[in-house]
Amino acid sequence: MHQINQVYINGQFVTPYGEELFDLFNPATAQRIGQVRLADERDASDAISAAKAAFPAFSRTTKAKRVDHLRRMHAAIESIEAELTAAIIEEYGAPVSRASWMAKHAASVLGDAAAVLENYDFTRQIGIARVTMQPLGVAGLITPWNSNAGFICGKLAAALAAGCTAVIKPSEMSAIQTSIVTRALHEAGLPPGVFNIVTGRGETVGAVLSTHPDIAKVSFTGSTSVGKQILRAGAETLKRITLELGGKSPVLILDDADLKHAIPMALQAGFMNSGQACIAGTRILVPDHRLAEVEALLVEEVAKVHAGDPNDPNTSVGPMVSLKQWQRVQRYIQVGMEEGAHLLAGGPGLPEGVNAGWFVRPTVFSRVTNQMTIAREEIFGPVLSIITYTSEAEALAIANDTPYGLQAYILSSNPQRAHVLAAQVDAGRVLINTLAHEPRAPFGGFKQSGIGREYGTFGLEAFLEPKSVLS
């Protein structure tokens, strides 16, 4: 039984003033596996004070020194990869292949940030002005449960590369992962107060980070509704804010696509991270005249998708993170049936052979209209919708007919045609015939999928303010 009773403030592990105990569960069994003592508003304020005190000295460190910090943090996270992978499986329920990738990603983002920093010029001459990129101040970093370690390390890496100090509020549902990551980052030996990690609720710790006058920057990944609350709260002190929010990503299968390759890739895009991914390709757009062919292939391919024990290497869809999330996904499946969508595969209830845990049957609806609830709202589970179109223009209109714009996918045998279409899709990232990730490229959303960008130089500059000196 895991018992986590400390937070990390000013370079030390301390008992929080907050007294609330939050239960932790293994979503694959629905059994309680531990408790975490949550930080409160006083703990958040203490962490901000520590970061504020550390900022003047840290903001003046050399680029080489910060690169060294990031390299040591990268090595520290790399050293706990096996332990972190096991925790991701136990606490989050990610299938083992996904959990291993997530643990590696938590380390790699630190190395990526070091590489970006090494090649970044903080000063440039523009006409008679010398422009210097200056660190903003104390950053408040709020991370979600669907890739907890990766978001902690990724946001922290960008903040520290810029010369900012940080207070991190990870999801309370990911406390085991957070404790492992915190211990490793502590071993990297950064100066006290440069980063602080306080696990607490959004309405307590998160609210302090969003409103405190000593927080200059907030970076949040999570739901669009919470992102809007943070934006409103930060407006009072004009905080710089980066929001990476929800998505309803289209997968455009063009009429020239080889369906035997396109359909498996579309399912991977939709079911990635057990469907608990803001970038999941949940709307599959297919040519009307190929619908029967698409449906037949999808039924065949979904039958190969194994939902079950995350420790089984054959599993590709694990459980939902919580009972609440499971109930949410089940409700959407029911709504899809009630609104007249054709249930092609899956459906309500537990997968066959599964008797415990918060598992969802990998579900695909066909003959969905883009106005149906399951096509409009982010479900955050393994539930996909097939929508037909009669022309490329209509496909583009459907793809863009959403309040979101985080990511999109185009599957075609004609790369040139796909690139022309990609230029017209309202999304921060468009993937053509691939599911790859490019850590040096900006990531973020159009419309209600967010504000600002992360990764690469764009992510670094989100923590910097330009200052022009004319002489």
Automatic annotation (TrEMBL):
Molecular function in Gene Ontology: aldehyde dehydrogenase (NAD+) activity
Enzyme class: oxidoreductase
Active site, per annotation: 244
Coiled-coil ranges from the UniProt annotation: none
Alphabetical list of InterPro entries matching this protein: Ald_DH/histidinol_DH (IPR016161), Ald_DH_C (IPR016163), Ald_DH_CS_CYS (IPR016160), Ald_DH_CS_GLU (IPR029510), Ald_DH_N (IPR016162), Aldehyde_DH_dom (IPR015590)
Cited CDD domains: ALDH_CddD_SSP0762
Record domain Aldehyde dehydrogenase: where: 18-469
Pfam family, one: Aldedh
E.C. numbers: 1.2.1.3
PROSITE patterns (UniProt xref): ALDEHYDE_DEHYDR_CYS, ALDEHYDE_DEHYDR_GLU
Keywords from the named record: Oxidoreductase
Catalysed reactions listed for this entry: an aldehyde + NAD(+) + H2O = a carboxylate + NADH + 2 H(+)
PANTHER family: ALDEHYDE DEHYDROGENASE (PTHR42804), ALDEHYDE DEHYDROGENASE-RELATED (PTHR42804:SF1)
Family: Belongs to the aldehyde dehydrogenase family.
Protein name: aldehyde dehydrogenase (NAD(+))
Organism: Pseudomonas fluorescens
